[in-house]
Specification:
The complex is a heterodimer of chains A (about 475) and B (about 180). Chain A has about 475 residues and is mainly α. Helices cover about 70% and strands about 0% of the residues of chain A. The longest helix of chain A is centred in the middle third of the chain and has 34 residues. Chain B is an alpha+beta fold and about 180 residues long. Chain B folds into 2 domains: about 90 residues, Alpha-Beta Plaits; about 60 residues, no CATH class. In chain B, about 55% of the residues lie in helices and about 10% in strands. Chain B contains 6 helices and 4 strands. In chain B, helix 3 runs antiparallel to helix 4. The relative contact order of chain B is 0.26. The chains are: A mainly alpha (about 475), B alpha+beta (about 180). Chains A and B meet through helix 1, helix 6, helix 8, helix 16 and helix 17 of A and helix 1, strand 2, helix 2, helix 3 and helix 4 of B.
């Protein structure tokens, strides 16, 4: 990136805020339509009742909780890139972190909708908030579901805070080049930022602290989501591997979504000189690494189910692959394939098999191949969440309790709407805000030095003089 | 009402030249500020590595978060005791999650607010010019570095010479 100047960065980012190509509007219309389908489906469900969804006894957590866990996982990558890779000084982070952070905020917003959808009577959703009821009885602070309320709301708040703090200097930059109403909007959002070092000094320190706070938060939030399941006694859920398994899966799916977003972004806005092939390759390497962890976790689950000798665990993992008579089984039991079995095979194919080509440099260096693999991983991770949530609930300890589950059109509509919600927000964001972190990209460039030989830079000479004065 | 800014400001195209001027001003003990499109360690070094006291604010509010995170669940557990089998009424491991989350929440929000507030408070110590010439110069957010020095009119000539020696592009006196 050494050929790029500071002025180029401003010019290139400003260009992304100009009138976009028609493809942008087509995409926006498509996702807004999906959002409308979701809103309509939800409205129908509120009007008619939760019976419209496929969730019933024994599968009380279906597609909605699957979507919740999936979107929280997607939301992992932004803060991972902006906080964890900031602390580890990953050099490829700067060009993609703004898009990844925006993705995190919108993904967690999307995830936050699903507990509201799932509770049915959304007008009573405030019961989730920790406050005492009429008899001064408080919520149960020992419940993993309440931990989740704290974890997700803290994660959303800190992600939004981190996102806004990162945006402030760039908004000031936009303010300085904008005119009219845009200038007024950017000016009010820039919080009086004037680029003085008095501000940069506190900013740099504060950003580091926020990164240090956000790092354990990244790992804690999906661990806590996993404990929603692992703290129960249900076969398939009650397992200590869940926290690292969920975190690895979240990083895996989140980074795949970053690729899904960033590859079209760099093409549409011509940002290839910033979001280089090296950046995509680095993301692909982390995806490959986490895919191996996820594959290992799948194998461990099966091995431990066998090795534990617990018949309920063994049965559950047998049924997870082969199904059982009655709910449609692919191999040993003749009949149609059940949705959970489809989910299992798609999960294994998309998450374990499809990333394997990434071992080859040529594939990692091919943006089209990366884009296809990232889409497959997104699909696979949705089915992984589905697999965990549904197939365990289908069969508890008592066979009389067992039952099938198929999502209904309303559930599919709301799921489609969640993708519409997420991508509509993201498309509006790239149109209105700098999708490249201007200040951080500049920081990663070679600064404009007058003296090419850094041994003779004048400020160092003065520094030497000052030291001699002191002596 | 505070007195208007009196001093001199200049713009530079190169980091090393602007840092050299800052280093000289710092050595002379003058009140100055630097404007930069992004943080650069050269300026930080030239300013004598000043320390922000922002971490103390984070520590205070993070500590408050821990206090409330453990305190509220403990108080509610003792206020209305609900024994469940042999489990402890005050379950410290379970409350650790609430404590951690509130520490991060309060610590993070206070840090973000402190970044903005402290940045503005510092400007009371070292004011920036409010002239139209300074306000309309918008390249400090783009590709130029600025040095602003408060001084008396008599010192302006020497300071201007120092800045010009270091290839200042524009030097503006404001008195």
């Amino acid at each position: 990136m050494s050929a790029i100047t500071y002025a180029d960065v401003n010019a290139d980012v400003l260009r992304t805020l100009e009138r976009p190509k028609p493809a942008y509007f087509l995409l926006l219309i498509g996702f807004a339509t999906a959002l409308c389908i979701g809103v309509l489906s939800w409205a129908i469900q509120i009007d008619v009742g939760m019976g419209l969804g496929g969730i019933s006894h024994p599968v009380g957590w279906g597609v909605y909780i699957t979507n919740f866990v999936f979107w929280i996982g997607i939301g992992h990558a932004g803060t991972l890139i902006s906080a964890v890779f900031f602390l580890t000084r990953a050099p490829w982070r700067a060009p993609v972190y703004r898009a990844a952070e925006a993705m995190t905020v919108f993904a967690v917003m999307t995830a936050g909708l699903f507990p509201l959808i799932h509770v049915g009577r959304v007008w009573f959703a405030y019961w989730l908030i920790p406050y005492p009821n009429q008899r001064m009885l408080w919520v149960n602070f020992k419940s993993p579901l309440l931990w989740d309320v704290f974890a997700v709301s803290t994660y959303l708040t800190i992600s939004v805070t981190f996102f806004i703090i990162g945006l402030v200097p760039d908004l000031a930059s936009m303010r300085d080049s904008a005119r009219g109403l845009r200038k007024l909007i950017y000016m009010s959002l820039a919080a009086g930022w004037n680029y003085s070092y008095q501000q940069w000094m506190h900013y740099a320190r504060g950003y580091l602290i926020l990164a240090a706070f956000a790092t354990p938060l990244v790992f804690s939030v999906h661990s806590i989501v996993s404990w929603d399941f692992a703290m129960s006694l249900l076969p398939g859920w009650h397992t200590t591997i869940f926290a690292p398994y969920f975190v690895a899966g979240a990083i895996f799916s989140g980074l795949a979504m970053v690729l899904t977003i960033v590859i079209p972004l760099r093409t549409v806005f011509d940002l290839k000189k910033y979001i280089t092939d090296h950046v995509l390759q680095s993301l692909a390497r982390v995806i490959l690494f986490t895919s191996v962890i996820v594959g290992y976790a799948y194998a461990t689950e099966f091995f431990i189910a066998y090795y534990s000798g617990v018949e309920f665990e063994r049965a559950l993992f047998y049924f997870r692959i082969f199904g059982q008579p009655g709910d449609g089984a692919p191999f040993f039991h003749k009949g149609e394939m059940g949705f959970p079995q489809i989910a299992f095979f798609l999960m294994v194919f998309c998450n374990v098999i499809s990333p394997l080509p990434l071992w080859r440099w040529k594939i990692r260096n091919n943006a089209v191949a990366l884009f296809i693999i990232s889409i497959l991983i997104n699909i696979g991770m949705w089915f992984e969440r589905f697999n965990i949530v549904v197939s365990s609930l289908q069969r508890d300890f008592n066979p009389a309790n067992w039952g099938p589950y198929w999502p209904t059109p309303v559930e599919f509509g709301i799921t489609l709407g969640s993708f519409g919600f997420f991508f509509t927000f993201f498309l509006l964001f790239v149109r209105a805000m700098p999708s490249l972190a201007i200040a951080e990209v500049k920081e990663s460039l070679s600064p404009p030095y007058k003296h090419a030989n850094h041994d003779h830079v004048p400020w160092r000479e003065y520094a030497t003089e000052r030291t001699e004065d002191k002596d | 009402m505070r007195a208007p800014f009196k001093g001199i400001w200049a713009s530079f195209a190169h980091v090393d030249e602007a840092a050299a001027v800052m280093q000289r001003l710092h050595t002379e003990g003058r009140k100055y500020s630097v404007l930069s499109p992004c943080p650069r360690h050269e300026f930080y070094d030239a300013m004598g590595r000043p320390q922000s006291w922002l971490p103390w604010i984070t520590l205070l509010f993070g500590g408050l978060g821990i206090f409330f995170g453990y305190g509220l669940p403990t108080w509610t557990a003792l206020d209305w005791v609900l024994p469940v089998s042999q489990k402890p009424i005050v379950g410290i491991p379970a409350f650790t999650i609430i404590g951690f989350e509130l520490m991060v929440l309060l610590g993070g929000i206070s840090t973000a607010v402190a970044i903005v507030v402290l940045g503005h408070l510092e400007l009371f110590r070292q004011r920036l010019p409010s002239s139209p010439a300074f306000k309309s110069y918008n390249r400090f957010s783009n590709d130029r570095f600025g040095v602003v020095v408060s001084c008396e009119e008599g010192d302006a000539a020497a300071l201007e010479q120092l800045m010009r020696e270091h290839s200042a592009e524009e030097v503006v006196r404001e008195f």
